[in-house]
Amino acid sequence: MDAIRRADAFAIANGVDGWTLMQAAGQAVAQSIAQRWSKRPVRVLCGPGNNGGDGFVAAAALREKGWPVRVFLLGDAAKLTGDAARAYAHWGDPAEPLENARPDEAGLVIDALFGAGLARPLEGQAAELCTATNSARAVCVAVDVPSGLDGDRAQADGAVFRADLTVTFHRPKPAHLLEPGRGQCGEIVCVDIGIPDGWRAEIEPVGDYNTPDLWPDLPTRPDRQTHKHGRGRLAVLSGGPSATGAARLAAQAGLRAGSGLVTVLSPKNALLVNAQSLSEVMVRGFDGVEGFLAGLDGLRATAAVLGPGAGVGEGTRELVIAALSRSPALVLDADALTSFEGETDHLFSHLRPGDVLTPHAGEFARLFPDLAEAPINKIEAARTAAERAGCVVVFKGPDTVIAAPDGRVRVNTHATPALATAGTGDVLAGITGAFLAQGTDAFDAASAAVWLHGDAGLRAGEGLIAGDVIAALPNSFAALRRRRRTDAARSALK
Ligand SMILES: NC(=O)C1=CN([C@@H]2O[C@H](COP(=O)(O)OP(=O)(O)OC[C@H]3O[C@@H](n4cnc5c(N)ncnc54)[C@H](O)[C@@H]3O)[C@@H](O)[C@H]2O)[C@@H](O)CC1
Ligand SMILES: Nc1ncnc2c1ncn2[C@@H]1O[C@H](COP(=O)(O)OP(=O)(O)O)[C@@H](O)[C@H]1O
Ligand SMILES: [K+]
User: Fold this and answer.
1) Atom in ligand 2 nearest the alpha carbon of residue 427
2) Residue-wise pLDDT tens digits, 273-313
3) Do 261 and 229 touch, CB atoms closer than 8 A?
4) What ipTM was assigned to the predicted interfaces of this complex?
């Protein structure tokens, strides 16, 4: 939580004091609650630090709004210090002992036990109360982070509150971005409590939520004069005769995502299998590395996807290294990643900042075994991986992290577990390839691809198979355009 502490220090150095921040934080918690739920008996569980301080402020603010509120304190009120002590005085009444809290009798529980300062797993009374709150019917609202959750690692080593709403401040922390922490947070509200402008320039942020306003020019809108060659030429490498489906999924996704021409480069022995199953996507046969390069050159490809169904081993390694000697930007997925297990230096020395790697957790561990083992979170792992590989890394999963080699990170939460089905990764590789083929910056291309892939998954819904994600893409594009038009109209009215 270092960045948050430094943000705090920055605010204080710029004339905003801690008490002002705490008041804003507590008020925001009360307001978020009042906006969502009708008046009901509230029990506020306050810890010994500033998280508890926020709790006292929230309690006083709800009381002010006419809510019935009782406050329970972990530890001794006489030991409270600083802003937390001031907040306790502001609440004014004596706090009741924590063991009397009885969440089963509450309508709403505010968890203000621990936030950024959690130093060890919950124990004793705090752990018991956590279990009792989780099994009670009361709504649970967490201040900053559900107590028990390590904000930096996004993990709990013991009991953890399961919140319906988490109100946090300034910027999302790893616990709000990454699983499994995010799953404990319920709805997440991030409130600006008055850290002055400019702190972000001084303090490296943890990472951004991947939202469409970060890549406003994507997907590229074809101009009126365009023709198919003007919209990017994408090549997709196919595997052998019994492993062609993955490449076709990637190719079809690339076409849907707006690449004007998509060609499957197929080993000659798989040419017929591919040709029989493709209509809009073209197919071209090759033999050996030289043949593959001739194919890439002949197509004048502007991007290529290598890996889905390609097979693991020397053959794939040679094709990847050969492709890296040519100009098309590459998306390396699946077997193109696994083939370099134990030989990553060779790969990394050839990669360029405009290339994209799209590993799932298993592939990530093969390429970056030390990072997968290290006690760091997924954001730090992906950021270090991108720096090391020298290109964009898309570390997939329920919390896909997109990292650029210059240290920027975006986390995508716009997705659905329905995407956990065979072939959806191939689809993502194809969409990414299409955006790269159109000349888009690799970090934005990957970010937009991941978001649209998640959006299409959400639209296709439960029961989806990979092909449905491809079919849903036009609806995702249309909805994104509508949303942008509405946003533009709203801001014009302001
Ligand atoms: N930095 C900011 O921007 C702001 C932070 N605020 C609040 O301040 C919080 C951080 O406050 P603190 O740094 O005081 O930390 P906490 O309030 O999270 O807890 C720190 C205290 O709990 C003890 N502790 C830690 N783990 C424990 C465990 N498992 N069992 C028993 N005791 C344990 C510590 O020794 C310390 O006394 C944030 O989460 C947020 O709620 C707000 O007041 C507003 C501004
Ligand atoms: N639980 C989940 N929630 C959201 N998205 C998921 C989840 N599980 C997988 N995905 C997404 O589905 C895709 C799966 O890719 P991958 O594992 O490479 O599958 P395949 O190799 O079968 O195509 C990735 O984009 C990943 O982020
Ligand atoms: K908390």
Assistant:
1) 23
2) 999 999 888 999 999 999 999 999 999 999 999 999 999 99
3) yes
4) 0.91
